[in-house]
Specification:
Chain lengths: 471, 284
């Protein structure tokens, strides 16, 4: 294989700021074919590929890259899909810099192979050229219920279907995708791409039942009676945290979940063509420093806010958001107000928010997360005038399903307790993975958990005695 | 998909639909609600379950046409499919024998109070019901309410039917006259507020059923949050039934007005579209 030592890692082409902040279309446009091939040729094809160690869904990274380098894109698609049912999504939202690309040998020189860009290239190639992966199904009467059609559930279902199982996904919302459709905005992950990946999973034989709230419309017990022999719970975190500060229920204060759901799932940005309204003020403050905060801030800009600021209690170094997301947000005009924490919300006589009283912070000793703990500076309170607030400080476990399963062991924080090796819960035949186990984490870690559970469910049917906790 | 089996026009603005949803009908309990979306561009709106029949596999919804979505829903006919019909959501009311229960239903709130009155009656409670509306035309389900109540009062604000005045006046008289163990009130927020103020003064436990703006209805967004006893609650998962004495009604009244401008605009756009369609039809 030819190696080109003189060319470096390609830059992802993206639309100019002034153009992209006026609409919700996707910002990066993807590598062109020649650039993808050139980048694939830069891969050293290591004998012991370190990149694969960093991949939660175990993609054979050097193999699919080698196929791109040879121009065999159809085969690259199939190589990819052996392990990953959702590459168009991973290629867009995975934090590769913390996974495969961090492990890449070339990372030492600062220019790891752009695995994420190549993954996206190959997934987009498939969508545009209609490549279909050749799967033939062995009929298997074993029925599995997957609860939640997010990244964990879709991955688990896809893998089980490939093994020949009869899988049905139950989704509470009216559209599949979970956080991929209600949370992540169109400009970062177009919904047509999510639905394309869902169609692929359905093409494997997976059935999808929408608008079914397991725990309310039907219980696990009911599903057992319907003949389901194993369960995977991938319901996500799904209960937004608020700051519990005075004035937080004033009009104009949204949880990030509500704000993004209105915009993404309900298409509020196209009101009144779509029925769901979304309110945006002239001055918007987003509280938090994660990817969800960045998504909210960038959505606010596109909805026409004049000033958008991000209020974060630590410094940019501690922000949990991907560096790339913070950069894009700042490019688009988001102003980061760091070392600042809200104390209370101020409102007018009609019940609308008018300002946030904040206090300045400084960093003290490291806390249990290893990040330096922010400490309030006494007497530094001041007011930021504001018309809309979006609270993006994370979420907790949604109780709807869990409270109907008294035998399910939960951890101290209320998430499902699992055997980390298998994804098995305390209830026989029931597995779990994704944010409902870990708390809010990444799409790819949820997918990894779905993959692990699929393997365990297969083992459970073939060899149930290997789960000592259920003996 | 959920098929509309029966449609009835109860009053010019209040409509009833019996919908074919066997799964939901099997699970429904008094006090619970459904979330409905009926076209691809539609919003998700919460509607209280007015009645349910597990054997027939049906759920009855009753709604008042107050904005674009409810007007649109009201134009749907028997045989039409409702795109998304999710539920049953929320918690049911506590079903037990309290003794003497007064059920108060104001306006379209008569519908959600009915299954609660029925359940309480079946458990042996003595049920006094008070239903009221602005004017005679807006009273519905009098017969149904009578069938689940030991005593029924009907009021209209303008005196065109039943007793003249507000439901709260009849309630006050009843509370003075009889020993009452529990009051259940469903209706406009302001009515539930007045009922709660009255019963709080007299120390009579009171349950109200709230109907704030919602999006998903499953605890995911927090749009329906309300302060109950100094604590922030999500109506969709913690409610919709709450201790009426603890609810911060003024905060909720303000929150209900969040999208007034947008609701008006949606209605205008809808009327224009309808007028256009009508013009095209006529010219053809």
């Amino acid at each position: 294989m030819s190696q080109n030592k003189f060319k470096g890692r390609p830059k992802m082409p993206q639309r100019p700021v002034q153009e992209r902040i006026r609409d919700f279309d996707e910002v990066p446009s993807g590598l062109e074919e020649w650039a993808a091939v050139e980048e694939a040729r830069r891969c050293l094809q290591c004998k012991k590929p370190l990149c694969m160690r960093g991949c939660p869904v175990e993609i054979d990274i050097p193999a699919f890259i080698a196929l791109i380098a040879e121009g065999k894109f159809d085969q690259a698609v199939q190589k990819m899909k052996e392990k990953n049912s959702l590459p168009a999504i991973c290629g867009r939202v995975c934090p590769q810099e913390e996974q495969c690309e961090r492990e890449c040998v070339l990372a030492k020189k600062g220019e790891p192979i752009a695995v994420g860009y190549l993954e996206r290239f190959i997934a987009d190639y498939e969508r545009e050229h209609g490549v279909r992966s050749p799967y033939c199904f062995s009929e298997n009467e074993k029925k599995i219920a997957v609860i939640g059609a997010g990244p964990a559930g879709l991955t688990c279902s896809g893998d089980l279907a490939k093994m020949g199982y009869d899988v049905t996904i139950f989704e509470a919302l009216h559209a599949p995708g979970g956080v991929l459709v209600y949370g992540i905005p169109e400009f970062r992950l177009p919904k047509s791409i999510v639905f394309g990946e869902v169609d692929y999973v359905k093409s494997l034989g997976v059935k999808l039942e929408l608008s079914i709230v397991v725990g309310k419309s039907v219980t696990i017990e009911d599903l057992e009676k319907e003949g389901f022999g194993a369960f995977f719970i991938g319901t996500g975190a799904g209960l937004p945290y608020f700051m519990e500060l005075p004035g937080e229920n004033l009009n104009g204060i949204y949880s990030a979940n509500e704000f993004l759901t209105r915009s993404n799932l309900m298409k509020g940005y196209r009101f009144p063509e779509y029925d769901t309204p979304i309110k945006i003020g002239r001055r918007v403050a987003v509280i938090g420093g994660g990817n969800v905060a960045m998504d909210s801030a960038r959505t606010a800009i596109r909805l026409g806010a004049e000033e958008v600021c991000l209020v974060y209690r630590r410094t940019k170094n501690e922000m949990p958001a991907r560096v790339e997301e913070v950069e894009r947000a700042e490019e688009e005009g988001v102003n980061c107000i760091i070392l600042t924490n809200p104390v209370r919300f101020l409102g007018n006589q009609n019940g609308w928010v008018t300002g946030i009283e904040c206090i300045e912070m400084e960093l003290g000793e490291p806390d249990e997360s290893g990040r330096r703990r922010p400490v309030a500076i006494e007497g530094s309170e001041y007011v930021i005038p504001i018309d809309t607030v979006i609270v993006a400080i994370g979420q907790g476990p949604n109780p709807l399903l869990l409270e109907t399963m008294p035998d399910l062991n939960l951890n101290r924080k209320g998430y499902i307790d699992i055997d980390p090796e298998t994804g098995a819960t305390s209830m026989r035949g029931t597995f779990a993975g994704g944010d409902i186990v870990t708390g809010a984490a990444t799409v790819i870690s949820a997918m990894g958990a779905g993959k692990q559970a699929a393997r365990s469910i297969d083992r459970f049917f073939k060899d149930p005695d290997t789960f000592p906790q259920w003996r | 998909m959920a098929k509309i089996l029966v449609k009835e026009v109860l009053t010019p603005q209040i409509k009833l639909m019996v919908v074919d949803v066997p799964r939901i009908a099997r699970k429904a309990k008094p006090g619970q609600f459904v979330v409905v979306r009926f076209h691809e561009q539609g919003e998700r709106i919460p509607l209280t379950i007015a009645d349910f029949d597990p054997d027939a596999g049906t759920v009855t919804i009753i709604f008042q046409e107050v904005g674009k979505s409810t007007v649109h829903l009201g134009e749907m006919e028997e045989g039409d499919d409702i795109l998304d019909f999710v539920g049953p959501l929320g918690r049911e009311i506590e079903e037990k024998n309290f003794g003497h229960v007064v059920c108060v239903g104001g306006g379209v709130g008569i519908a959600p109070v009915y299954p609660k009155a029925r359940a309480l009656k079946m458990l042996g409670n003595f049920v006094t019901s008070i239903i009221g509306a602005r004017t005679a035309d807006l009273i519905f389900w009098e017969k149904e309410m009578r069938s689940v109540s030991d005593v029924l009062h009907v009021t209209t604000d303008d005196g065109t039917y039943g007793e003249k005045g507000f439901v709260t006046q009849v309630l006050e008289n009843t509370l003075k006259k009889d020993t009452v163990d529990l009051v259940v009130a469903v209706g406009p927020l302001i009515m539930m507020k007045m009922v709660s103020l009255l019963t709080k003064k007299l120390g009579i436990p009171t349950l109200v059923s709230l109907n704030p703006i919602m999006v998903d209805g499953t605890g995911m967004c927090g749009c329906c949050r309300v302060t109950v006893g100094e604590k922030c609650k999500f109506t969709c998962v913690d409610g919709p039934v709450f201790d009426g004495h603890q609810v911060d009604y003024d905060e909720l009244l303000a929150r209900q007005r969040t999208y007034l401008d947008e609701e008006q605009r949606a209605m205008e756009v809808w009327r224009m579209k309808k007028a256009e369609e009508e013009t095209i039809r006529v010219t053809k």
